[in-house]
């Protein structure tokens, strides 16, 4: 249930203010028949929803204090120059992290039944043999009552936990822009744009284990603080993000149907976790729960430089246009009505998170990524760099002290190759026997110059192919289409 009010106040013919306030209330999620559970850290057990108020049904306390102010201004101190600015708060009432922050996924309402088997246990002789005591052949099928509530065991199934007082995430956004008309139909915009995410929902293992001491070789489960549970995935509002950018836009319109737009951004984005289901290049949406801020680094989508040039030319030929408007219908049909569009994109490469696969002795959870030790530049120097050694294997080493499974490498410390691509489109409209009926032809080329753009390299220091690049973005692609409108 959202409510807002907003007012544009024209102070004078040079200054206008935009002021507003928004109130938001969204109930916590609940399901029919109260088939929902949450982990209770006080009792170290799962508690079940029940009939009653919003908390009883959702096991989450409703948030009644989500106010979002907005303010902006536009000021024209002199002719052909305008200053604009604004600030606002936007709430993130719900962000589905796959099934990870759905309390309805908890047992015994849903049974995540999984058994790890190893051949050294010996082959089961009968379908009735306990599945954990021997290796069960496929032809025996699933064990009897394999996935029933009575067999739910939090030591074999992941539990989900959202703190009952978890705050609502929100983003503060602001900008300051100067717009100037440099000449006739030529406009320049220069802006500072920023935002700051607060209480963003991230994931971690609430039951993250303590590290082994040197010489100690306890199992992962034996080192967990809550012994009657295995992995307890917590979805909680400890995440944050920061973005700051200079944005420059140059826009030019010509009298012959030609339009030019160039947009340039110089920016930096940081956070402590990638968005769930949006991880790339070795990044992860789950943090080191013992020290979440140790995962602070560049956002996985950070691009320092981004420049896009767009050209649209509505060619001035044919009926109603400057040239060939009086030509015969066949010439007008062949040469008139064409439109050309070009988009040229240049961006910095995306960040790369360098990781390794720890042995069971070094592992404290299966949730986060583990980073190795790093000495020097993680990227191979340009003169020695090939697609087989983009990342420098000599600059990384696997930790040897189990007390410190995370090495010195920061998150997202390397960066991939930059990206260059030119796309072009050629469009034409063919009028038929009435204005309501026409054919439209499209010819489009993506990556027109067939530029080789490399994707990210293998960033696992435990892999024998560490640092190698095995894939590229698509080569030139052509497509044609004809559309009949009536």
Topology record:
Blueprint: E1 2-10, E2 15-24, E3 37-40, E4 45-48, H1 54-58, E5 66-78, E6 81-92, E7 159-161, E8 169-183, E9 186-205, E10 232-253, E11 258-271, E12 297-298, E13 305-314, H2 329-335, E14 338-347, E15 351-352, E16 373-374, E17 396-397, E18 414-415, E19 419-431, E20 438-446, E21 477-485
Parallel strand pairs: 7-10
Antiparallel strand pairs: 1-2, 2-5, 3-4, 5-6, 6-8, 8-9, 9-10, 10-11, 11-12, 11-13, 13-14, 14-19, 15-18, 16-17, 19-20, 20-21
Description:
By secondary structure, the chain is mainly β. 2% of the residues lie in helices and 38% in strands. It has a 15-stranded mixed sheet that branches. A two-stranded antiparallel sheet has the order 3-4. A two-stranded antiparallel sheet has the order 15-18. A hairpin with a 2-residue loop joins strand 8 and strand 9 (186-205).
Compact description:
Helix content is 2%, strand content 38%.
Overall mean confidence score, pLDDT: 92
Distance between the termini: 42 Å
* Number of E-type strands: 21
Q: Helix proportion of residues, in percent?
A: under 10%
**How would you spell out the order of helices and strands?**
EEEEHEEEEEEEEEHEEEEEEEE
Q: What does the radius of gyration come to?
A: 30 Å
Structural class: mainly beta
Number of helices: 2
Shape estimate: globular
Strand content: 35-45%
Low-confidence parts, pLDDT < 50 over ≥5 residues? none
Largest sheet: 15 strands, mixed
